[in-house]
Specification:
Length: 108
DNA sequence: GCGGTGACGGTCG
DNA sequence: CCGACCGCCACCG
């Protein structure tokens, strides 16, 4: 699979590799996608995903280990999806990166 | 091409 | 722990 040449394509390609039961941060995705510090753009791209996409967007949280998506904007759904995969998420949306952050091999 | 904008990230109070 | 600021970068009007 050739890596997509578009920014959104690259972001999607990286997010798709995040395994079930694990999470990744926006900044982590940005770097793995070769976007440097364009972490904000990752959130922007995920927000643009169509409803019902196969891309596991709910596995992406911020560097503070918290759900960044406002509750009334889908954050509730994201939390439930993570819980369904066995990821512990507190009521305030806190996730232990120590336990669940994805550590891909090889590439940085 | 310019400027506003955001599902970010790090720092400081 | 929470809010305020500032720096970053690609998207969009």
């Amino acid at each position: 699979m050739r890596r997509p040449s578009t920014t959104y394509g690259r972001i999607a390609a990286v997010v798709r590799r995040v395994p079930r039961g694990s999470v990744a941060t926006y900044g982590q995705v940005a770097r793995l996608a070769g976007l440097g510090r364009a972490a904000r753009q990752v959130g922007y791209a995920l927000h643009a995903l169509p409803t019902g996409t196969s891309i596991p967007w709910h596995r992406i949280i911020n560097a503070g280990g918290r759900i960044s998506l406002p509750p009334d904007a889908g954050g509730i759904d994201q939390r439930l999806r993570l819980l369904a995969e066995g990821v512990t998420v507190t009521e305030s949306g806190r996730v232990s990166l120590e336990r669940y952050q994805w550590r891909p091999r090889g590439r940085a």
